[in-house]
């Protein structure tokens, strides 16, 4: 557990907080309780800090000051709902030990304006109006890429892909590859803020009789995000029967060996400086990256002057049955025979399909959230995969995704995110046993939780 009490009193308080949380769920529903959960986490942390000897972790003291200033930066929210509500309940509950009775809690409704009840409704509407307008404006001016920017980037990426394709065929005429295609958010109209990256999918053609995918859960790794590709029937179809046998490692197809072969060709053998003239832009392999990445300078005249860069990642890909497996060594790390099972295509296709059926704004919401998270330092760790899955989960319960509820859905996504952060678990939509928050540490989660929690009363802070 997050909180580790050493003293009797602290254990008592922790028990009360947990008790409050479980009751809050009954009274407020999951989202409301989640909001309160982050608030109580703040309290837990303050208690923990207060009980810690001053010489312990001295470098962390600045952090707690930052947090305190964050607390006072939004006094309405934190003082009222944390100290005013939770702390008082803790006091009464510890004193009277009324642990068997449910404690009614006020709903943490956003307090947008202070005014008397009749006027308040009006003020609320005004505040909401303003936010809706601001969100729409943010979407138009900050999130969306211009059609021209997209088309220039796509054309350049296509030209480069054509060169790579031709060179690979020339250099390895016997390498069984499927149709190479550009992929990713730039192609799916999901890229935001700046057109700055695309992927080139290089599909390996594997003989289905000789290769079997083994899901990560069923391997020693025990991790559903990975997969291994096992070579079958070696006694009847000996090594060498398949082109890809040269990349075997202990009976499995090695993503590292495949990447290395493609890397040698694309990154080392292709004469990129010479191609600069033909391509009308500068292309340079990114060295030292575990991925096969090309950096492009001068997509257009103006971007050349501003020093902007565009990146193309070459992704060796295996499609076996329903699975799409990628050699993404940034993710698989030192596991040389492990492939990354990408759900990007299934997730984006599902969102597109849902939006198409009801002219919905799911992808608009997703793009806005992506822009918000990439522009806000404390939310950087929330990546597109997290956000896609949140919207997909929301779509299970929310039927109305019309334009008129765009801002509502955006704010709802913030609340849902807080809920997932509070539990530390965001299940993958297509693979519920995969927790997309795995790999984030406690501090990351806290930081994101605080930021989003503050945004509940003041959503404008996200649009800075
Ligand atoms: C957010 O966007 C604004 C305007 O585009 C920019 O000035 C600012 O540096 C960005 N912040 C971060 C953290 O990227
Ligand atoms: C998103 O972040 C998670 C957790 O940090 C990480 O495991 C995952 O690989 C990232 N996904 C993408 C597509 O970058």
TrEMBL record:
State the InterPro entries in the record. Answer: Mab-21_HhH/H2TH-like, MAB21L/cGLR, MID49/MID51, MID51-like_C
Highest rank taxon of the organism: Eukaryota
Q: List localization entries.
A: Mitochondrion outer membrane
Could you list this entry's UniProt keywords, alphabetically sorted. Membrane, Mitochondrion, Mitochondrion outer membrane, Nucleotide-binding, Phosphoprotein, Transmembrane, Transmembrane helix
Domain Mitochondrial dynamics protein MID51-like C-terminal residue range list: 149-347
Which Gene Ontology cellular-component terms appear in the entry? mitochondrial outer membrane
Mab-21-like HhH/H2TH-like domain boundaries: 362-448
Protein name per Swiss-Prot or TrEMBL: Mitochondrial elongation factor 1
